[in-house]
Model the fold of this input.
Amino acid sequence: MDWKGRDVISVRDFSKEDIEFVLKVAERLEDELKNGPLDYAKGKILATLFFEPSTRTRLSFESAMHRLGGSVIGFSSASSTSVKKGESLADTIKTVEQYSDVIVIRHLMEGAARLAAEVAEIPVINAGDGSNQHPTQTLLDLYTIKRAFGRIDGLTIGLLGDLKYGRTVHSLAEALAFYDVELYLISPELLRMPKHIVEELREKIRIHETTDLEGTIPELDVLYVTRIQRERFPDEQEYLKVKGSYQVNCAVLKRAKESLRIMHPLPRVDEIHPEVDRTEHALYFRQVFSGVPVRMALLGLTLGVL
Amino acid sequence: MAELKVTAIREGTVIDHIPAGKGLKVIEILRLNRPNGGVLLLASNVHSGKLGRKDIVKIEGKFLSEEEVNKIALIAPTATVNIVRDYMVAEKFKVGIPDEITGILRCANPNCVSNHEYTVSKFYVVSREPLKVRCHYCERTMEEEEILGNL
Done:
């Protein structure tokens, strides 16, 4: 399996073996990190091109590169770049690749990372393209589940909230379809998972679509909660209809299995009450931590230094 | 004998059984109306035993490959292609939808990068019956109605 120079654009480009391999390397790196910083990527430069704001993903990539011994350049908003002067994405990529060894891109347009990868000679990693894909989030989600349960197969997983616009749940659902899982898609009618994804999932795993969180929660091993993302709604009225549809709190969790683990790609608004943070159910901060070893694995593998 | 209404060609390609009204779109997709192409003949709304009405396109002096002609399968799945040599049909085939559709279809997703940056559009055929294609860039699936609206 040759990862050197490989792009990481979509979960669709991965096989189950690819995913398992990345998770294994991440686990190894997490163990190695306990003995101090690493120097696998010494002398290598990561360019983080964040055309759209993001705190977690950008800092997580930067932390991962630093922990690998490499360094980071980049920007966190398109307004401070030549894009504002009308430069094409392709030209920006061709320029930045002269300064770096690997590119991480976050862009508001779907397919932007794919285009960047076609243009660049160096590896490109997708850190989110519009409402399409967020493959590194998916890998860290899978890693978190695997670390918490020791397995992914055999679990019953609920995806809750904005399943229409939420790219994290699109990618995660597609990746979970590689495993022997049962999936509950829980959302308001207006925010159901896109039809074409549901059809694809149905061919591979058992899925149920529902609006009922309380009735479903006793079945679940993992509840993956997402924010209803105001910024992705084309119509504010549509957002107001579904705003605050679900809140996971201790009352709702009374019906859950003791072993239920709650995940969230963060940031959250009001969909998980802070009182849940103190319970054994909360896995979302551990999930944030998982981003570092998983992104270290991806950076190291695509750079060819691991 | 509707074909006799337009001149028979000595050498070239005849695309027959195009659904009525789609002939011009076929010409556009195959870029047959370029000035350096051969003589082009279009017969529209011709009586057809199979289709009721059909269009026929004849291109003189040009032999289109099966791959080239397959591009029209999205709008003219019933079309048949005849390669004519010395007034005789030397080869005949039905069009088929290729696995990849490049350069002729626009993505229906307004937020797809292919609608904003310079790219050659590319789609993968997910299903032929019913027709569904997936955009190479934004990965969104388009169904028949959207496909026809974005040709």
About this structure: Chain B has a mean pLDDT of 88. The CA atoms of residues 133 and 142 of chain B lie 5 Å apart. Chain B touches chain A at residues 109, 111-114, 116-119, 132, 135-141 (CB under 8 Å). The longest strand of chain B covers residues 40-48.
